Amino acid sequence: MITGPSGVGKGSLISLLRHRIPELELSTSATTRSPRTGEQQGVDYHFLDQDEFLEKVAAGEFLEHAAYSGNHYGTLRSEVEGRVAAGHPVVLEIEVQGARQVAESMPEATQIFIAPPELAALKQRLEGRGTDSPEAIGRRLEVAEEELAARDEFHHVVVNDELEAALDELEAIVRGKLSQSDQ
User: Fold this and answer.
1) pTM of this prediction?
2) CA 122/CA 43 separation, integer angstroms
3) Could you give the 3-state DSSP secondary structure of residue 46?
4) How far apart are CA 61 and CA 134, in angstroms?
5) Nearest-5° Cα angle at 73, 69 to 74
6) How many CA atoms does the CB half-sphere of 168 hold within 13 Å?
7) What would the pLDDT profile of 75-99 be if each residue is shown by its tens digit?
8) What is the DSSP string of 38-99?
9) Residue 93: strand pairing partners
């Protein structure tokens, strides 16, 4: 699983990582937030309304779920368990709250925290996306400060200062884990 604060570059790193390691399958998360421009249902996220999301939580259909910046996010068990049982490596892109839940229920999962070089860089990235209001960015930065304090809870920390270097480090961690599971 790959976690870290919003705007740290998890999605970009995972996308590039999957080009280098094509057998990696990405788990599609569920969310109650509205789709951003260009996002597709079932591809980028499973977009659910709040009632549907909460019904799935009550039915135990989530491996992990969390409230983040006013929305709910989660990983459906069906997105992960079948693939893992079939021997396919799965990568989860999740927020810190959810990563903690996965670490409890799947301690064998490789836990990677992506960190920004500094909080100012994270603010600049969030503003550069142009998808959030200044108030939303402020809330995300407050949460990010708390999340950055949790980085030592995870097996690996990759600082995303220079994208190519961070990608190389991430690839080495994942390839190392995959070679262990092949033995």
Assistant:
1) 0.82
2) 26
3) strand
4) 34
5) 155
6) 5
7) 999 989 889 899 999 999 988 888 9
8) T--BTTTBEE--HHHHHHHHHTT-EEEEEEETTEEEEEEHHHHHHHHHTT--EE-B--HHHH
9) 2
